[in-house]
Amino acid sequence: MNKTITYKRIWDIAWPIILGSMAQNIITVTDTAFLGRVGEVALGAGAIGGIFYLTLVMLGWGFGIGTQIIVARRYGEGKDHEIGRVVEHAMYFLIPISIFLIFFMRLFSNQLLDVLLTSDQVLEASVEYLNIRSFGLLFAFFNMAFRALYIGIAKTRVITWSTLVMAAVNVSLNYIFIFGKLGLAPMGIRGAALASFIAEIAATSAFIIYTSFDTDLARFHLFRFRQFSILLYGRIIRIAAPVMFQNFFSILVWFLFFIFVESMGEHALAISNIIRSIYVVLMVPIWGFASAANTLVSFTIGRGKPEQVLKVTWKIVHLSVLSVTILVGLNLIAPTLVLGLYTNEASLIRDGLPVLHVISGSALFIAAGFIFFSAVSGTGKTQIALILESVALAMYLVYSYTMLKVFHASVTGIWTAEFLYGSFLIILSYGYLKTGHWRKAKM
Question: Quick one: which of 15, 175, 358, 377 is 20 to 30 A from 230 by CA?
Answer without folding.
Answer: 377
